[in-house]
Amino acid sequence: MNKRNTITDIVQSGMFSEIDIHFARFVTRIDNKNDPDIFLGAALVSHVTGNGDVCLDLFDAKNQLISAFADDQRPFKLPAPNEWEEKLISSRVVGRPGEVFPLILDKKGRLYLSRYFDYEISLSETIKEKAGKKIEEFDSTRLSEGLKRLFPAEQDRQPNRQKIAALVAVLNQFSIISGGPGTGKTFAVAKILALLLEQSPLRIALAAPTGKAAARLTESIEAAKRILNTSDTVLSQIPSEALTIHRLLKSIYGTPYFHHNAENLLPFDVVVVDEASMVDLALISKLIQAIPPEARLILIGDKDQLASVEAGSVLGDFCDRDRIHEFSEPFRNTVIQITGEPFETAKAEDGRITFLKDNIAILMKSYRFNLSSGIGGFSRAVNAGDVESSIGLLEKQKDTSLEWRPVANTDQLHRLLRTLVLDDYNDYLESKDPLETIQRFNGTQFICALNRGPYGVIEINRFIEQVLRKAGRIFYDYHHPEPWYDKRPIMITRNDYELGLYNGDIGITLSGRETDDPGLYVYFPGAGTGDGLKAFNPHRLPEHETVYAMTVHKSQGSEFDHVILVLPDKNSPVLTRELIYTAVTRARKRVSILGSETVLRWAISRKIRRTSGLRDALWE
User: Fold this and answer.
1) Tens-place pLDDT, residues 109-167
2) Which residues, 6+ apart, have CB-to-CB distance to 237 below 8 Å?
3) Domain limits at 250?
4) Would you state the pLDDT for residue 480?
5) 38 in the same domain as 95
6) Is residue 610 part of a domain?
């Protein structure tokens, strides 16, 4: 018989952070019983929330923690779920929904930090209310004409799903447009805004979760405006700048609060959020509370990409992940009548009546990867979790866009990296013009699954610098704590609104360009100098890091000609099909995967599993 846990066992397990332990001690002190099971529940819910889950499922905790801890070898025993649930709810620190306690336990045995339960309930209730509001008043003739003008018929005579998505956004107060890379999501957004503005003048806000994503949305919308077939009056009303969600809501320095909230609503009629898969539960809950009740909210993203760094998998929960939902019959008839698209929707997997089914449009046609593309075929197989097809495509390597180099150890990895670095960076290192140098650097990007360890970003960046230095391609004092040198690429890791530099921005260090100072300057794309660049003295920059390599998470929202994905030599909880899919689809032309078959199979077979009650609240 297993002995009962002690608090000492739990603390000394080494599996919890100081924050987890401090929170558990705080909770048990309030409870005044010093019960190890209460302590364990508090420590675990703090831990899983810090690792991306929204709650702890008492009845599935074993599986949940296998994902969180990589294996099931724990020096403590999980209590029997029913007994654990009974003990928690009888304590002084756990309440039921609607009560005020540090921890909340819902009727399905999910244990929450009270703040995250409030976020989830608030979000689900607001979305239900907003999703149920259809736009009844519109000029159908003008709308039909606009759809025909802005969304011409597809050459392959297939239904124009961008046109259908546009109508979903026009007819609903809340809508989601999800699609993979190259499906034209942001271009469709510009057309949607034109359709809305052709109906009536509107105040519009464009937002994204990061500075880099906001900058890319700005660029995409501006590019689309140059070719949109609409009036100058309409074009002038489409915003010229996208903001981060934090800037849009006006964050209060040093606090988790914003100036715009439920009591001080945003002054907009339409809010568009791009890269919505990167938005966590807390942030989107605060955003939606600040949106006026009658305003439209349009979420754009790829439901199959990596979820947010912080807790939640909101876009995936909104879209019900892998389940298929067809439009309701009345809405389908409306779509056919207005768009003229005689489409057949996919058959739903079940007969449930769900209110969100008419609010979601899925874009499936990629204009970047055709059906015969190696990258396209591999990404589709990975996304479907089809391990054998994925490995088969890599083994055949019929398409030069897709390359797999099995790696057994770090020596083999370093040999491959050395060749790739010296070959791929040659043009970049020879370039003299700043703009050309930036463009050439963006031709190749090393992407890692991990941040630390021999296969992680920190070590790969160090190794690449070493290769280039030994080859005489870069010169610097490697004893210096942060050596600056000609051609050093860096990524900003903290927003600086005064300088106009944002988390994720990539700049290149160059020497001898400024006439008043021949020293080193870091150049970033964007308005500034006459050649469309911003130049900064390195010592003025906010927090930053060398970026020959970056994590998959930090690559989200970016595109590169050649992506080189470095996988670790053994299984890790971060390895999932979403991670492989996200990394591979950053590539425009070519992907090289450096990793073993065992690790690839493990990753493709595993799906991100974030525990929350949001999907149940919206779809059950």
Assistant:
1) 999 999 999 999 999 999 999 988 888 888 888 988 998 899 887 666 677 888 889 99
2) 197, 201, 202, 204
3) 133-368
4) 63
5) yes
6) no
Q: Spell out the residues 6+ positions from residue 384 whose beta carbon is closer than 8 angstroms to its own.
A: none
Give the predicted TM-score (pTM) of the model: 0.86
Distance (Å, rounded) from C-alpha 203 to C-alpha 247?
Answer: 17
Burial class (CB in 10 A: 0-12, 13-18, 19+), 558: middle
The rounded Cα 564 to chain-centroid distance in angstroms is 20
Q: Give the domain-ending residue among 93, 121, 149.
A: 121
**Mean pLDDT, the chain, as a whole number?**
86
Q: Which of 269, 273, 219 is nearest to 246 (CA)?
A: 273
Is residue 383 a contact partner of residue 389, using CB atoms and an 8 Å limit? no
- Phi first, then psi, for residue 572 (nearest 5°) are -145, 150
Rounded Cα distance between 259 and 268, Å, is: 15
Six-digit token string for 54:
């929204």
CA 182 to chain centre: 16
Shared domain for 276 and 378, answered yes or no, is no
Closest CA to 438 of 342, 534, 567, 538: 534
Name the packing angle between helices 211-225 and 185-199 (round to 10°).
60
* CATH code assigned at 116: 1.10.10.1020
Enter the tokens of residue 353: 């009546």
Last residue of some domain: 304, 338, 368?
368
What's the CA gap between 495 and 511, in Å, rounded? 25
Q: What mean pLDDT do residues 165-178 have? A: 93
Answer whether 274's CB lies under 8 Å from 316's CB.
Answer: no
Instruction: State CA 314 to chain mean position distance.
Output: 10
Identify the bridge partners of residue 271 per DSSP, sorted by sequence position. Answer: 205, 297
The token pair that represents 276 in the structure block: 């919505």
> Amino acid identity of 107?
K
3-state secondary structure 422-471: HHHCHHHHHCCCHHHHHHHHCCEEEEECCCCCCCCHHHHHHHHHHHHHHC
Cα three-residue angle 579-585-589, rounded to 5 degrees? 140
Average pLDDT over residues 202-226: 89
Lowest mean pLDDT among 167-176, 280-289, 298-307: 298-307
Contacts (Cβ under 8 Å, ≥6 apart) of 14? none
DSSP letter string over 261-318? BTTB--S-SEEEESSGGG--HHHHHHHHHTS-TTSEEEEEE-TTS---SSS--HHHHH
All residues at 6 or more sequence positions from 122 whose CB lies less than 8 Å from its CB, including other chains: 285, 288, 289
Crossing angle between the packed helical segments 281-289 and 114-131, to the nearest 10 degrees: 50
For residue 256, give every residue at least 6 positions away whose Cβ sits within 8 Å of its Cβ, in sequence order, or none.
282
Q: Are residues 397 and 542 in the same domain?
A: yes
pLDDT digits (tens, 9 = 90+) for 440-474: 998 999 999 999 999 999 999 999 999 999 988 88
Q: What is the maximal distance between C-alpha atoms in the chain? A: 78
Residue reference for tokens 């150890």: 409
Residue 126 lies in a domain: no
Residue with structure tokens 């057309």? 191
Phi, psi of 28 (to 5 degrees): -70, -30
| Measured distance CA(298)–CA(287) in Å, rounded | 12
* Strand-by-strand arrangement of the 103-105 sheet: 56-57, 110-113, 103-105, 94-95
Q: Flag whether 99 is in a domain.
A: yes
Tens digit of each residue's pLDDT (9 = 90 or more) over 386-421: 999 999 988 887 668 889 999 989 999 999 999 999
Q: Is the pLDDT of residue 530 over 60?
A: no
In contact, 247 and 260? CB cutoff 8 Å: no
